[in-house]
Amino acid sequence: MRVKVKQIKSGGEKNAFLGKEVTVKGWIRTVRNQKTFSFVELNDGSSLTSLQIVVDQKLPNYAELISDLNTGASIAATGKIVEGVDKKQLEMHADSLEIIGKCDPETYPLQKKRHSFEFLRTIAHLRPRTNTLGAVARIRNALAYATHQFFQDRGFLYVHTPIITTSDCEGAGQLFQVTTLNVDNLPKTKEGKIDYSKDFFQKPAYLTVSGQLEGEIYASAVSDIYTFGPTFRAENSNTARHLAEFWMIEPEMAFADINDNMDNVEAYLKFVFQYVLDNCREDMLFFNKYISPGVLDTLQKIVGTPFERASYTYAVRILEKSGENFQFPIKWGMDLQSEHERYLVEKFFDKPVIITDYPKDIKAFYMKENNDGKTVAAMDVLVPKVGELVGGSQREDRLDILEEKLERQGLPKDNYWWYLELRKYGSIPHAGYGVGFERLIRFVTGMENIRDVIPFPRYPGSAEF
Amino acid sequence: MRVKVKQIKSGGEKNAFLGKEVTVKGWIRTVRNQKTFSFVELNDGSSLTSLQIVVDQKLPNYAELISDLNTGASIAATGKIVEGVDKKQLEMHADSLEIIGKCDPETYPLQKKRHSFEFLRTIAHLRPRTNTLGAVARIRNALAYATHQFFQDRGFLYVHTPIITTSDCEGAGQLFQVTTLNVDNLPKTKEGKIDYSKDFFQKPAYLTVSGQLEGEIYASAVSDIYTFGPTFRAENSNTARHLAEFWMIEPEMAFADINDNMDNVEAYLKFVFQYVLDNCREDMLFFNKYISPGVLDTLQKIVGTPFERASYTYAVRILEKSGENFQFPIKWGMDLQSEHERYLVEKFFDKPVIITDYPKDIKAFYMKENNDGKTVAAMDVLVPKVGELVGGSQREDRLDILEEKLERQGLPKDNYWWYLELRKYGSIPHAGYGVGFERLIRFVTGMENIRDVIPFPRYPGSAEF
């Protein structure tokens, strides 16, 4: 019977597998040859730690084996699970061992030494075999599943909003165009323009920047929904914080205001952090030790602390009185810069804080205008180190005001006919937010570059693999 | 306290809410005015059935209310939950009722009468408010969550494979091109060709048709994975069975052969069908009654029946001896047509059947060649009514044979350098399959047109909403 390393390891000393004969399959991480034994570390990706296999040189096929027992080779081993000499770890005494796929140690790109993350990106087909990228994969998986659990437990429906779209959520941001036209020989109209009637969708189409507007459609029918899918930005941003393709989680709640929104996002973040603490302890200890010391403590603290809530206006007052020498001196009406956010969350409040009610001129058209006529019911969740982790708002549910805002921002009303009709037929107060999934993983793991928390990052000049 | 209709309905007679005062919020489906009462059916999307609210005309604001109590309006009602006259259904006696968002009955596109699905597609922003599309949304949600549960419970990691790609899984199928070039004024090289160095990814990029190849990368590091994301086909197919944008589930298992693959897909399908039977009974009764009589029975039967397994060669023999007058007479070497698949699954076996070991010339390059030199370890799962529901294979894990096959199919080896390296460094026997998610929903619900089982369908000429 094949068992995974995680199953063997998880039981500790009173392990169900202790003394039992089992088979394990995986890839060799390291080999140490002693006088009469070889020690082989086998990893199958189920856990960070490998299983030590003691290979007795008296095994009948040992002579053939030895030259192929190399880092990277895939093997199957059968033997008894016993306590190691230090009694802390279980190991296997192999009765048989088979090489499944050889690995030439001379050319294998993953050597025992530590590789830079930059280098690992060039071998994205092999990097999940490293400790760090393997751990990222498990944390990413856990955060995704925890996300589904959180919303499903609360009766939210998972909705797949479209990827290809002819409308653009915020009327802002650069888009990827999607076409089946032969760009080497574009069809033209009599007027010499591109003949989009020949394109697949018979008009220009783009990759979505957000599923929010379509999410609002479903919230306006089934009350509470969430999306979880890829979104795209074509900005030429070559930074550690931007991806051209990334995953977003966008809940939308009917009959909900900005306070319900804040309650939900706080509960959501605490739930997924607690899930990782409960289910990915070994990986988190790894990140805490080798990648971002203190990250475990930060998560634990957040889970146990009520988030602070403060209005933008109050936050600006705090910043003005801070005595800090900001690069961008703050003034009411300006968007908060990263330095401001970090001062608020790290120095002033020293805990996550939700900033609400931003000036309407710096926020998107769909946010609900407050009664003061100057602000909108927007919210940003700020956390230590990364700053803004989540953005959201109550949505404008009044038809006349929404039409005015579209006009004010120069957006064509015709493009939003269906969005406006949601306010015409049984309009509801509703609210939602967007979580950049990679930003969330980056926060949880403490990984520095966002390109290392997604399996195959897309950024300017790079869509390999 | 706001409760959802599903919570009230789910308890039956011994309901926790019976005799309690609660608040419900949702949209009016119908209003019937009697002499001294109005009966309002409120639906909030949490369940198929609505809650009947008895509105006494003695309510202080009744006179104002009455003209706005229209189908489509959003309301909040507070009152006691009591047994209806027939004692079968619970209803609410309203103490107060508030119109939240009005709905003009003259212009509201969703009238009481039955609308065609074609018409409803033109109002995709309102159609989830109908019985059928609401039920589809709940079934779709349940199948998605059940999918995650199935794989998570078995230690599979959820992997997000890329949407934008420069490699194409099967070397076949029409692609959507993704670009940030200004198509009205394309940059050109000295030779007059399009200067892709100016494009976002500095080379032509496309929307993925499958995450399989990248899934194999992760299986070759962490053993068992699954993907669940959007995929794209630019074929100009205007049928009830094709979408340009659809979601796929693609598990990939390390140290697994075609038999493990068959075991897994059978367990997967039974798990998700059972989940829907257990969790979506009301919606399934609806589909069984109004959309596809017998669909409930079909699911129940499948869950309790071992799938048949038959080789392609055996299947061809059955078809040859069937005495049926097929439009396409079958011969070894041909791909099975829909009529053949339906004969096998509906007439001959009368249960789901997995056909394996297809002729290598009609299958993709990555499938493992069998020892007979003529067939590959492919598998298709056939089910009643829809035919092929899932396709999969054991993958070719021998470097030399894979290189040969690429060459034979005229695919450029350089494009697959990383895919080939998986066979060079610790290669493993592995297998996987792909489930078209919309096809799965179509099968479960019995909905005829695939455009009605995805929130916002994309097909030739249409990317609205």
Number of helices of chain A: 13
As residue ranges, the low-confidence spans of chain A are none
- Major sheet of chain A: size, sense and barrel closure? 8 strands, mixed
Q: How far apart are the first and last residues' alpha carbons of chain A, in Å? A: 34 Å
Alpha-beta classification of chain A: alpha+beta
Order of helices and strands of chain A: HEEEHEEHHEEEEHEEHHHEHHEEEHHEH
Question: What's the short story on this structure?
Answer:
The structure is a homodimer of 465-residue chains. Chain A has 465 residues and is of the alpha+beta class.
Offer a few descriptive terms.
homodimer, 465 residues, alpha+beta, OB fold (Dihydrolipoamide Acetyltransferase, E2P), BirA Bifunctional Protein, domain 2, 2 domains, eight-stranded mixed sheet, five-stranded mixed barrel, 13 helices, 29% helix, globular
If you had to describe this structure to a student in words, what would you say it looks like?
2 copies of one chain form a homodimer. Chain A has 465 residues and is α+β, with helices and mostly antiparallel strands. Chain A folds into 2 domains: 5-108, Nucleic acid-binding proteins (OB fold (Dihydrolipoamide Acetyltransferase, E2P)), CATH 2.40.50; 129-174 and 209-452, 2-Layer Sandwich (BirA Bifunctional Protein, domain 2). Chain A is built from 13 helices and 16 strands. In chain A, the strands form 3 sheets. Chain A has an 8-stranded mixed β-sheet with strand order 6-10-11-16-15-14-13-12. In chain A, strands 1-2-3-5-4 form a 5-stranded mixed β-barrel. In chain A, strands 7-9-8 form a 3-stranded antiparallel β-sheet, with no helix packed on it. In chain A, a hairpin with a 7-residue loop joins strand 2 and strand 3 (51-56). In chain A, helix 4 crosses helix 6 (258-279). The two termini of chain A are 34 Å apart. The mean pLDDT of chain A is 95.
